[in-house]
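Cross-check.
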Amino acid sequence: MRFFDFRQPTVPSPAKALPGRSQPIMTPGRHAILGTPLAGPWPDGTKTAVFGLGCFWGAEKDFWQLPGVVTTAVGYAGGSTPNPTYEEACTGRTGHAEGVLVAYDPARVSYEQLLRTFWEAHDPTQGMRQGNDMGTQYRSLILTADDEQRTTAEASRDAFQASLTKAGFGQISTEIAPAGPFYYAEDYHQQYLEKNPNGYNCDNSTGVSCPVGLGVSAGGESEASIKYVQVWAG
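Predicted model, tokenized:
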């Protein structure tokens, strides 16, 4: 008889994570829709944010459609393995989540507005999964550049929790942590749904509106930048 293991997946410690490699796996080019560089340079004043909300193919599209977004890119974030491949990330042994990097103009779109898109585009109560996509790489994640982003993210989480509770959902499991390196994913993942209009898109939103901007304190824009791994020589 075969027994199934229903234990919740866990993020491996750095000591148990895959070793990865010293060299980046790709050289980032330009955004397929916006035409802007995926890794900069960007206009003066551009801010950055990183989110994990399940499969990054559909998640990226949620952000590139927002006015004021300079560029978006998908990659691996929040884990230990340097320069992982997609196949390695899918094993759950890198510690990384599938992440979306958002570079944005704070004069046109605020960090709080990005957070609202984040919360409304997935179900943050599902732990190490989104819908049928299961594993630590699909966990809900906000990586913050500084204390200001962290405070704003935590305030938005608490506000959305109240709305979710009223709607009958459980506790938010989203990880909010300081940002480390963001490793760009392979080119075929970048703007995937633009290149593959009928491609897989895990829409697992709750249908609950996030009250960010309706009582949550402002001040989410940050001058600090997240460390992005340069993936070209020189």
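Confidence is low (pLDDT under 50) at residues 214-225, 230-234. The longest helix spans residues 147-166. Passed to J.P. for a second look.
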